[in-house]
What we know:
Layout: E1 27-37, E2 40-50, E3 66-69, E4 76-82, E5 88-95, E6 100-107, E7 113-119, E8 129-137, E9 140-148
Antiparallel strand pairs: 1-2, 3-4, 4-7, 5-6, 5-8, 8-9
Amino acid sequence: MAVLSDLTLAPGKCIDLLIDFTPKTIGIKYAMFEIYIDGDTVRFPIQGIGTPPVGVEDNNVLPSIVRVYPNPSNGAVNFSGSAPTAMPIRMRIFDLAGNQIAHETRVATGGGEFQFVWNSSETGSMPSGNYIAVFSYGTSQTRIPFVIVR
């Protein structure tokens, strides 16, 4: 808990406080922000959304090139790429709130080539917006941003 004390504000003045509330577990989390004023406590509820990590670890980047077409798209999105060898490649699609929308696993061919087609219209008619495709195998991954336009 952070404590800010010995702060005096003149009447009619204000202060801006930035509260960084980032839950470490997935889902909606709640907390209480408390201010003590002249012996009284004023409480403000705050809410944060813990999301699954979709970033790329610098030391675990998928050593492949993934192409997305078309981008932006209004329906089917094609992803293709290559991995060092034939292996299972997992694709997960996330919205910007961190919600996983779709997932699929395919085995790359003998030359390491893989292709995924995700039809955004079949997944509950996804709204226009920015999305992230995460491709992974083993402990390596890469993320590809793309846009859906309706």
